Amino acid sequence: MFPTGIDLGFGAVAIPHCDASHANKPCVYLIKPTNGIPFERADDDGELIAELIIALVVTDPAEQMHLLRALFTSLQDEDFFNELKNAPTIEAITATFSSKILNKNKEVA
């Protein structure tokens, strides 16, 4: 319903998410497309090319806000963004995301 592309200054990410009422089970999908994907900008008119897509499926609206806060905070770090973008394996992506986002999310909650 709303645009989710975010220009980070050093790269671009899209964070599509659904309303919690439509989610059966919480999960996060990290998608690294071979070529960037156009997304409508969340902060401005027009499109940007997202190099990472982090799709959120959250069942608790309050938890979604905590997760988004932790995610936005971490994505401001260019090293973190590049670590996700350049991770060579699923395990590397999972480890990076878990240590920076999920652990931070538990601290925020």
Description:
The structure is a single chain. The protein has about 110 residues and is of the alpha+beta class. It is built from three helices and six strands, in the order ββββββααα. Helix content is about 40%, strand content about 25%. The strands form two sheets. Strands 1-2-6-3 form a four-stranded mixed beta sheet, with no helix packed on it. A two-stranded antiparallel sheet has the order 4-5. Strand 4 and strand 5 form a beta hairpin. Helix 1 crosses helix 3 and helix 2 runs antiparallel to helix 3. It is globular and about 30 Å long. It comes from Vibrio variabilis. One of its GO terms (molecular function) is transferase activity. This is PTS system galactitol-specific IIA component.
Keywords:
109 residues, alpha+beta, Mannitol-specific EII, Chain A, 4-stranded mixed sheet
Structure summary:
Keywords: Transferase. By secondary structure, this protein is of the alpha+beta class.
Topology:
Layout: E1 5-7, E2 12-14, E3 27-31, E4 37-40, E5 47-50, E6 52-57, H1 61-75, H2 78-86, H3 90-108
Parallel strand pairs: 2-6
Antiparallel strand pairs: 1-2, 3-6, 4-5
Helix pairs in contact: 1-3, 2-3
| Overall helicity | 25-40%
Strand order of the largest sheet: 1-2-6-3
By DSSP (H or I, 4+ residues per run), the number of helices equals 3
Mean pLDDT: 86
- Helix/strand order: EEEEEEHHH
Q: Which geometry do the CA atoms define?
A: globular
Oligomer: single chain
Determine the N-to-C terminus distance: 27 Å
Segments where pLDDT lies below 50 for 5+ residues? none
What is the count of structural domains?
1
Main beta sheet strand tally, sense and closure: 4 strands, mixed
Total count of strands: 6
Might you state the CATH topology name? Mannitol-specific EII, Chain A
CATH class (first level) name:
Alpha Beta
